[in-house]
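Email to the structure team, subject: Alkyl hydroperoxide reductase AhpD model.

Hi all, the expression group asked for a predicted structure before they design truncation constructs. Nothing fancy, just the tokens so they can compare against earlier work. One-line instruction: predict Alkyl hydroperoxide reductase AhpD, return tokens.
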Amino acid sequence: MPLDSLKSRIPDYAKDLKLNLGSVIGNSDLPAQQLWGTVLATAIASRSPIVLRELAPEARTHLTPEAFEAAKSAAAVMAMNNVFYRTRHLLSDHEYGTLRAGLRMNVIGNPGVDKADFELWSFAVSAINGCGLCLDSHEQVLRKAGVGREVVQEAFKIASVIQAVGVTLDAEAVLAE
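Reply from the structure team: attached below.
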């Protein structure tokens, strides 16, 4: 199982990450599509080739082809949106907020899967990319759709653990050179 393979690569000093990875994926109450879409989107957002290589095949077995593509789309569009909206929000000149974005984001309106699932994946990617504006926006959409705080928190727990595993394993790979 790729999850076991990934866990076995985590060094002893990061034992908490190993335990948390097993917990957030292996003991999650999220439905399979929400869980594995979140895992795939955040593995992409983590920018860790090791994490993505290990988790993407497992995600593919749990997701329909449409959901697999939608999770990749969430990671792609949020990579753009998180930079754009975070920058616009951080600038002291708030007039940028009145300007038209002029960026295509059609996939958000028609993701090919349940809208709440796509929003959850977008939210989790935004957690990794640190865009407060996007986090607030997606959290509000999720809450209006009836998604509970526990589910929202589960998404950013997954994001935080996958990000930390990626940072740790990529650092270990460099240190081993």
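The chain has one domain: 2-175. DSSP finds nine helices and no strands in the chain. Ping us if the truncation boundaries need rechecking.
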